[in-house]
Design goal:
This protein has helices at residues 12-26, 47-51, 68-71, 75-90, 103-115, 136-142, 151-159, 171-177, 182-193, 207-227, 244-252, 270-276, 287-293, 306-315, 323-328, 343-358, 360-377, 382-416; strands at residues 2-9, 38-45, 55-59, 96-100, 120-123, 145-148, 164-166, 197-202, 235-241, 263-267, 279-283, 298-303, 335-338. It is of the alpha/beta class. The strands form 2 sheets. Strands 3-2-1-4-5-6-7 form a 7-stranded parallel β-sheet, with helices on both faces. It has a 6-stranded parallel β-sheet with strand order 10-9-8-11-12-13, sandwiched between helices. Helix 6 links the parallel strand 5 (120-123) and strand 6. The longest helix has 35 residues, at 382-416. The radius of gyration is 24 Å and the shape is elongated.
Length: 417
C-alpha cells in the first residue's frame, strides 16, 4: 500500500526542515516500511527536498517574498500555483498535506486541500502565539493537526483547542548532522590553547540587520578592549558574516584608530565560531537555537525603527524576542531592543559581555541553565518524531476511510435486501 504526502514549502529554511522529514518518511529501513505501507512525497518545495527524494512539482523557494510590497506583484502568480496544487488534489492521488511555515500562501493550499477531504498537517506552524492570533479561526477551519516545534506553540494551540503535538525543533537535527570544518576548528583550538578566549560576534543574516546592529557591536568591542584592562588582553573577537558583501561592509566600518582591535572576520564559519566561543554577542534570530544547542552564553540585541517598534508593542504578545528565552519561560539570554539613540544598547552589551568574560559565577550559572534547557528542549530527533507522528496519522485516516466504506457497503446491502 502506498501513501502520498503533498508538501508545500516556500522558504529555504523550511526546504531543509522538510527534506529531513521526507528522508525519515521514505527511508526503506525506517518508519515508512512498517506495516507494509510505502510513503512517497511530492509537492512544492526546493532543492533540498528534491535531493531527499521528493518529486518537486514547483520550486516554490525561488518565489519566496517578504512584506506586502514584494507580495503584491506576485499575487496572480501565487493563485496560479494554488490552482496547480488543487488540480493535484482533485486527481485523488494525495492522502495528506504537510505545510511548512510560509502562511500567506499555505492558507490557500490548506483551504483547497480541505475541499477534497484531504487531512492537513502544519509542521513548523506560523507564529500565531507571538502575533496574528486573529488567524486562529483560519487555522481551525483549514488545518486538522499542528506539528509544533516549540513548547510555546503547543501551549498556544492547545489553549485554542486545535489538535497539536510537540516534536521538538528540527534545527537541532541540523546541528547534530553538521560536520564542522576541521581546518577552521584546528586554527581556533590553537588560539584557545594559547590562552585566548574567543567572543563570537553575530551581526545577523540579512543585510539590513547587519547595517543596523554591527555598529553597536563594534563600539562595544572598542570599549571592552580599551576599558577592560589587562584582563581583556587575551580576548579576541570573531565576526561571523553570512555573505562576502556583509563581511566586506563590516570590515569597512573600522577606522584607522581600530588597528589595535583584536578582531577577525569570517564568512560561512558561524557554527565553528559558536562551538569554540567563550560567549557571544548576537542579533536576535534563529541562530539563538544553535547557541543553545552548543551551550554558548550570549547577549542579544535587535535594533528597530521607531515606527516598527510602536507597531510591535501593539501587535506582539510575547515577553522576549529570543527563542530559547521563550522555551525557558525566562530570560536566560539577556536581551535589549534598541530604538533611537544606540548608546543604551552599547551600554547594555558592554556590561553584559564584561560580566560573561570576568564574572566566573555568573558565567557558570548561565552555562548551567543552558545545559538544563538543552536537556529539556534541544535534543535532536525532531524529524524522526514528526515522521512517526505523520505515519500514525496516515494509518488513522486509512482506517477511518475503510470504516466509512464498510458502513456504506452495509447500508447498500440492507437497502438491496
Amino acid at each position: 500500500m502506498t501513501k502520498t504526502i503533498f508538501f508545500s514549502v516556500g522558504e529555504p529554511s523550511g526546504d531543509q526542515h522538510a527534506a529531513r522529514l521526507i528522508r525519515q518518511l521514505t527511508n526503506p529501513g525506517g518508519l515508512a516500511m512498517q506495516n507494509t505501507e510505502r510513503v512517497v512525497c511530492r509537492g512544492f518545495g526546493g532543492p533540498s527536498m528534491l535531493a531527499a527524494g521528493c518529486r518537486v512539482d514547483l520550486d516554490l523557494t525561488r518565489h519566496a517574498v517578504v512584506g506586502i510590497v514584494e507580495v503584491l506583484p506576485k499575487i496572480r502568480e501565487f493563485f496560479r500555483f494554488a490552482d496547480q496544487a488543487e488540480a493535484i488534489f482533485r486527481s485523488g492521488s494525495v492522502d495528506a498535506v504537510v505545510l511548512v511555515d510560509f502562511p500567506g500562501f499555505n492558507w490557500h493550499i490548506a483551504k483547497r486541500a480541505k475541499k477534497y477531504g484531504i487531512p492537513v498537517h502544519y509542521y513548523c506552524p506560523p507564529q500565531l502565539w507571538a502575533w496574528g492570533a486573529w488567524r486562529v479561526r483560519k487555522m481551525k477551519r483549514s488545518v486538522d493537526h499542528v506539528v509544533a516545534v516549540l513548547p510555546v506553540e503547543e501551549a498556544f494551540f492547545d489553549q485554542h483547542e486545535i489538535p497539536v503535538s510537540l516534536v521538538g525543533h528540527p534545527f537541532f537535527d541540523a546541528v547534530e548532522e553538521q560536520q564542522l570544518d576541521t581546518a577552521v576548528m584546528r586554527r581556533f583550538h590553537q588560539q584557545t590553547q594559547s590562552g585566548e578566549r574567543i567572543v563570537a560576534v553575530l551581526p545577523g543574516s540579512r543585510d539590513h540587520e547587519v547595517r543596523a546592529n554591527f555598529p553597536i557591536q563594534l563600539e562595544t568591542i572598542r570599549r571592552l578592549h580599551r576599558e577592560g584592562g589587562e584582563s581583556s588582553q587575551n580576548v579576541r573577537f570573531a565576526v561571523a558574516a553570512y555573505r562576502d558583501k556583509q563581511c566586506l561592509w563590516c570590515r569597512e566600518q573600522l577606522s584607522e584608530q581600530d588597528s589595535d582591535l583584536p578582531i577577525d572576520f569570517y564568512v560561512d564559519c558561524t557554527s565553528e565560531i559558536i562551538e569554540v566561543a567563550h560567549c557571544a554577542m548576537m542579533v536576535s534570530g534563529s541562530v539563538s537555537l544553535e547557541l543553545l544547542a552548543r551551550e554558548t552564553p550570549a547577549a542579544v540585541i535587535y535594533r528597530v525603527g521607531r515606527v516598527l517598534h510602536a507597531v510591535g508593542k501593539r501587535v506582539l504578545k510575547i515577553d522576549s524576542v529570543t527563542l530559547p528565552n521563550l522555551m525557558a519561560g525566562r530570560k536566560i539570554y539577556p536581551e535589549f531592543i534598541s530604538v533611537g539613540d544606540p548608546a543604551p544598547a552599547v551600554d547594555f552589551l558592554t556590561e553584559t559581555m564584561h560580566a560573561m568574560l570576568h564574572d566566573k559565577f555568573y558565567y557558570a550559572k548561565t552555562r548551567r541553565e543552558l545545559g538544563q534547557l538543552r536537556e529539556l528542549h534541544a535534543s535532536p530527533g525532531a524529524s524522526r518524531r514528526a515522521a512517526k507522528l505523520l505515519r500514525s496519522k496516515l494509518l488513522e485516516s486509512a482506517d477511518s476511510a475503510a470504516e466509512k466504506n464498510s458502513d456504506a457497503e452495509q447500508t447498500k446491502t440492507r437497502q438491496a435486501a
